[in-house]
Amino acid sequence: MATRDFDAIIIGAGIIGAALALGLARKGWRTLNVDRLPAAGYGSTSGSCAIIRPYYSTVDGSALAYESHFYWKAWADFVGVADERGLARYVDCGCLVMKTEGNRHLAHIAAIMDEIGCPYEDLSPDDVRARLPIVTLDSFAPPKRPEDPDFGRPNGRTLAGALFFPTGGYVTDPQLASHNLQRAAEAKGAVFRFRTAVTDIVKEGGRAAGVVLESGEMIRAPVVVNVAGPHSFKINRMAGVEAGMKIRTRALRHEVCHVPAPGGFDFEHRGCVYSDNDIAVYMRPEHGNHILIGSED
Ligand SMILES: Cc1cc2nc3c(=O)[nH]c(=O)nc-3n(C[C@H](O)[C@H](O)[C@H](O)COP(=O)(O)OP(=O)(O)OC[C@H]3O[C@@H](n4cnc5c(N)ncnc54)[C@H](O)[C@@H]3O)c2cc1C
Q1: Is the complex ipTM higher than 0.85?
Q2: Is 236 a member of any domain?
């Protein structure tokens, strides 16, 4: 493979690497994604609950996330090509976030939403009960592990209500969404190589100039992008840049479980994304009237 075959090498083909390939390919860049797994989105993306929410702790992060809602809603148009495996589906059921002492009743989030013009509803405790009758407004803080004798015991206080964000929901199959992006990028000339691990970064003149693969093959490009997910810190180490970084990455174990919804409530169709900092848990509807529950990091 000759030098300058590619304008950018993208390490990783998760949802981020595949989206980046599409974005660059649409701008005319010749990109190569290299991923050690067999297909796009097989890394942490495939284990994701794929919740799409507009509220983050910074204005920029929230604005970016809010904008993404509109791309997900018009996914077929955004992807713009057929995928032999079909298209991922976005369920825009909205997100309900409980106001807790821990999140200071979401005052900071509400201010960000006002700044970026993202709609939300301020719900009283009764509004929350009407929207999600399976939810209790009792407070259980601080979050405890199941083996704690006080697990599941209310602390006597009640939660103050919630904010509801209509521009949110979840993607039913994030691995498929990555594949959709791969196909769209390929239609613009992007190249993907799977089952190919990067083992070193070529450095020249104080910057990355290519990658070395486990086979020993070297591929050069003027731009190398590290979107290797939870293990991206290993790539940063290969490049010798980790020490100077203000924000570092590390792999974390993240628990998610899948349980039936309480009898008598159609959570799959009447539920929404739910986030409760009081017990450090979030959940979303899952098919078969199930609930996908995750722990906050
Ligand atoms: C259980 C769980 C639930 C989550 N829920 C949500 C959620 O509801 N909403 C949300 O927004 N986010 C959620 N996330 C986070 C979300 O999944 C990630 O932020 C996102 O998938 C990251 O995508 P990525 O492309 O950066 O990483 P990944 O999907 O991990 O892709 C990185 C790729 O890099 C490849 N790679 C790594 N090292 C090398 C190497 N040396 N050589 C070649 N390839 C390499 C890997 O094989 C992998 O395919 C969740 C994560 C988990 C684990």
Answers
A1: yes
A2: yes
